[in-house]
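ERR on first pass: missing label on line 2. Operator R.T. fixed the label and resubmitted. Corrected input:
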Amino acid sequence: MYFGGDWLMRRFNIPDSEFIRGKVPMTKEEIRILTIAKANICPEDVVLDVGAGTGSLSCEAALHAYNGQVYAIERKAEGIELIKANTEKLGIGNIKVIEAEAPEGMEQLPKLNVAIIGGSGSKLAPILDKIDGLLVTGGRIVLNCITIQTLSQCLEYMRQREDYEYAAVQVQVSRWKQVGPYDMAEAMNPIFIVTCVKK
Amino acid sequence: MYFGGDWLMRRFNIPDSEFIRGKVPMTKEEIRILTIAKANICPEDVVLDVGAGTGSLSCEAALHAYNGQVYAIERKAEGIELIKANTEKLGIGNIKVIEAEAPEGMEQLPKLNVAIIGGSGSKLAPILDKIDGLLVTGGRIVLNCITIQTLSQCLEYMRQREDYEYAAVQVQVSRWKQVGPYDMAEAMNPIFIVTCVKK
Amino acid sequence: MYFGGDWLMRRFNIPDSEFIRGKVPMTKEEIRILTIAKANICPEDVVLDVGAGTGSLSCEAALHAYNGQVYAIERKAEGIELIKANTEKLGIGNIKVIEAEAPEGMEQLPKLNVAIIGGSGSKLAPILDKIDGLLVTGGRIVLNCITIQTLSQCLEYMRQREDYEYAAVQVQVSRWKQVGPYDMAEAMNPIFIVTCVKK
Amino acid sequence: MYFGGDWLMRRFNIPDSEFIRGKVPMTKEEIRILTIAKANICPEDVVLDVGAGTGSLSCEAALHAYNGQVYAIERKAEGIELIKANTEKLGIGNIKVIEAEAPEGMEQLPKLNVAIIGGSGSKLAPILDKIDGLLVTGGRIVLNCITIQTLSQCLEYMRQREDYEYAAVQVQVSRWKQVGPYDMAEAMNPIFIVTCVKK
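pass 2 clean. output:
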């Protein structure tokens, strides 16, 4: 077996195979690892995960914020069920699930140390405005962008904000599968990860 | 500032800029994050870092194995100095530096939970044999391969070992630099990361 | 030697090493090959190359349009000199060089079958408008985008034009260099190639 | 329609959509373009395509060698049928199809100017030996490698041959698909293209 549970003791990455997925697209392991690492989550942090999907990012964030709290916003009922199923499977108790389409559902949130945006529908700017109102100085926003339009909107937004600095990377992972005597590439789609720090 | 110290409390990634580097090539941040994540290091683990270079992987491993021990083998005197300088700068106390060309210098090592191979000179097979003799069941070997020959030797070795399973990924990261009003790509060299688990 | 002249007889790609370059950035061989291939240049075609730089794309276009004409627009004097030097070196006679910053310098152009945009400064939309006024039905515009902003502007422009269809690809090439007994990757920056066909 | 026929007059790339494919894997457009370009095929050349599959590379080679001859070796009956169907559809008359598993079927071949190896089964070295016996000085072998093992064998073979020089590139293409208002990446598997020139 690739790796075994006991998550609350060991705060390293959870492999894709550990998550219940259904038909909801899930952030792949390597992207999840990099996203969480760039979020620099501390034990007491309050973290928001927008467009939580299966909750895979929320779950890993919750393991790093083990004395803190994670809020997971997801608009689809199927996603909500999967997040609950995955938190239960992994024995994670510090995730609050909010069924809403962001920026809705953010009214009651406390101050945030970290916001992760895995999906933004078509409302990135209002979501970023809402997050900015809650984010502490030194806080971070980490976005996974899979479309040129979302990436472009994110860069445009951050370029207009002198109180933020950002770093963008594109990550392309290929998994080399064992097929008989050969190792053959299986390309995964490239993702842009934008890390924004509030000054 | 991109991010601040206090490493022993917060076990997340250390950015490239925090390391003293000299002319020794250093594993880049994203590759270091993925390598450490795939190594699944636990607090009490004993970790070996072969071809430690600047010690960047050793330092991050040491933060995860905060109740354990890291052994860093490096053949170059300049590397040895850098590893010592970096551990001191980061306030890391659980790294033992061994100046040798692996597989030499491994005679006195205890049982290992994890071995990281950043550089193997031209002696990968004997290094893997030596590690295998020390590695516990369920232990991991994570290799960063930057040449086709090292990758090929690694895959060939692991395919002959029925007591290991491996997963290989290739990671290509491009950093999108802010140049005036534009974001322009700066490609980093692709790396193969091979994760081997002893059954 | 990697490959020898006589270009007018053989219409295949010209390696980077054949071009005089100076300090002007040059489209790399693999990107040039794909750009020219996607431009589908016919022997009698009239081709425009905007932001011609060293003229490497103009020269290859001229070999395909061997009974046609290529117009190369470049704003920098150094570029103009390089284009002239390269056409002379390769014995190409069907390139007219225009020293101007596009869309300036396009007033006198005839109908175009193909337009290649290697560089657009910050004036992509007006350049595309000007090209559209000259481009025949079934004609093509092929853009090389190295920034997210240029790519985004290009996609936004084409999405508003129902009389164009486009296909965008991102190409990442790594050259594996022979270093002693090893083959090591040297990553080249990723490029977006957008092919637009006028319906 | 993306682009129209009349191949014998215009020697540019044929899009994937023009080929009849069945279930046989086909070299994708961008890889085909680069492979053919690096083969430097001249009008009178004799070209061998080993592991021809659907014949897509054979067909493009035949358009460049329009006064020459292409020999396409393929072991699978389905492939043979597809090659014949594609040559007929495109009106190409200078391809001879050989149903055999290379290096078998190469006995009767004349001197070769170019050899393209799209698939080598597990017999790369004997195939390269056979090709070497037929290849003229200055002739080229261009290989598409999709496995680490084939790539590694190819590099090892060429490193032992002082009468050849080679250049290896890895190409990763992502197609950005238009999905509603977004452009989303669809990664294609990375391919290694090795170009070998006989000195």
